[in-house]
Design a protein that fits this description.
Order of helices and strands: HHHHHHHHHHHHHHHHH
Number of strands: 0
Helix content: over 70%
Structural class: mainly alpha
Distance between the termini: 30 Å
Strand content: under 5%
Amino acid sequence: MSSSPALSARGSRLAALVVGLCWLAVLFDGLDMFIYGSVLPHMLEQKALGITPGQAGDLGSYATFGMLVGALTAGTVADRIGRKKLMVACVTLFSLASGLCAVSGSVGVFGLGRTLAGVGLGGLLPTAISMVSDYARGGRAALTIGVLMTAHHAGGILSAYVAKWLVEPVGWRAAFWVCVLPLLFVPVLAKVMPESLSFLVAKGRTEEARAMAERYEAELPATAGRQAPAGRWNALVDLFRGGEWQQTLLYWLASFGGLLLVYGVATWLPTLMRGEGYNLGSALTFVVLFNLGGIVGMLVAGRVSDRFGAPRISAIWFALTAAGVFLLSVHMPLGVTYLVVFLTGVFLNSAQTMIYATVSIRSTPDNRATAVGWTSGMGRFGAVFGPWLGGQLLAEGHGDWGFTAFALAGVSSMIFIGLAALRSFRQPRTGTAQQELLAAH
């Protein structure tokens, strides 16, 4: 199928369709993820379900443990059955699990709901990243992923307003009922979302890919030089062949510290700020500013990373994040605190996303979902540990040390992704132009 300006324009419209649908799915992902942290100050104050600060940290870790399971399994499953089917299943799962949280009568049932929601949340994000990477226009992969991830933080902003508008007058259960509404989006996603053309070609389903390309008047991916589809575990083994194992481990370690920081702050920011003397409305304002910063950061980091390389930008962003998080432990005027929270959101969220962008860009369509999924999955161990750590510090009366602990996690991620950036820089620039692009990231 030959390329033409008209064909390119239609292909761009297909890319916009895919990114738009994935953006909405990730918006609901962000809403479901952040809603717990947004309602947590009210739940602790009202002793809802009898939870204590220590149990609250455990409950936060249940969701991130579910995300660990979802991320580790989703990449491999998506590379086998397709991105579209898995995205539909993930949105369905976390929406129904939120309903279970809404009707729960005990900490155990609530924890089960958060764990199941986490499985869906953890599976959706790497799958959506892989999907938009397949359709990203040349040289704009990191920016496209950054645009996608603005949805996650838009969901965080939405969670703060849902909590602010519903929790005080109606109760915390109403917030979780709102998180069931994405079920209405599932039929739209199932009907309208196309499967990844690169996935179909990589799996040898070329006739199906050709038919879909003709239907959407898009350009069929080139098949030249493609290897036979990888087996279930071959895609994972490929991450450790040759010298790749060192790079893979650096990405995993950086992701561990980054997600410890992201989910530790996301879970405990309103509660820690409430402990500093702010009322619930003001504490939720920090959530809004944090996620607004995340949106700005995604757009800025994506564009800059496409120019200078995602791992290099990620390392710089983690350094700035560590400084911002540490400053939150220092008493400052309210206006300065607002600014620090906003800037911390700018750097923190996009620093972690640029790790995913790096892995996605360096991977082939055959194992892209596996590579991103396992990088996210290894990071989920940090995501499990972060909320638990915050809960333990708060339970022991050392909540002010939480910001310091999270800042140290940012420093560790800066070191590991920085080493990965140096290794990428030193790699010889040989081979095709595509290989050179991968090496640069």
